[in-house]
Design a protein that fits this description.
171 residues, mainly alpha, Arp2/3 complex 21 kDa subunit ARPC3, transmembrane
């Protein structure tokens, strides 16, 4: 019983933290060359959740965060774009963590997650407006943005994960 309760509390905390980071990210305008581009701070929680809870529960957390932030601070279109990017990114990072965790750093996995997030959102945007030129014209900018944002998220997740390991929260 205690493990189930503890896991439920951790899921709720991760979801709340990801939602707060999403909200804070929307409040702080960071000058980006592409409209709507963000750092992706909630992905810190996604990475930590993948490492501590596994893919199925992280899928629950990511989906809950996307719908909650969309309903509270965004729109239905924001939910659509976030789902595309968030779920593709989650899938890529989960596969990389499972297949190559010893070979790839958390920073590299985060960077590839950022790239896949941008690809997912860009694919949906091109499909919505039915214009593949949109995809190809924004692709270079979004790939370049994925590098610093993926690194920032990866470094933050790596530091946080090391601290969580020290306090034995998940043993």
């Amino acid at each position: 019983m205690e493990n189930k309760t503890r896991r439920l509390v951790v899921i709720a905390l991760y979801t709340a933290l990801a939602l707060i980071l999403s909200y804070l990210e929307s409040l702080v305008p960071i000058p980006m060359p592409v409209p709507g581009a963000k750092v992706g701070l909630p992905n810190i929680v996604t990475l930590i959740s993948l490492l501590t809870l596994g893919t199925p529960l992280t899928l629950l957390i990511v989906t809950a965060r996307i719908f909650l932030s969309g309903f509270l601070f965004g729109s239905m279109s924001a939910i659509l774009y976030s789902l595309a990017g968030g779920l593709l990114s989650l899938g890529v990072m989960a596969l990389l963590l499972k297949a190559a965790r010893e070979k790839l750093s958390l920073i590299t996995i985060s960077l590839l997650g950022a790239v896949s997030h941008n690809l997912g959102q860009l694919a949906v945007a091109a499909a919505v407006v039915q214009n593949m030129n949109l995809f190809w014209s924004y692709l270079p900018f979004l790939m370049l943005l994925a590098i610093p944002t993926g690194i920032v998220v990866g470094v933050a997740a790596n530091l946080l994960y090391r601290q969580l390991q020290k306090i034995n929260l998940f043993k």
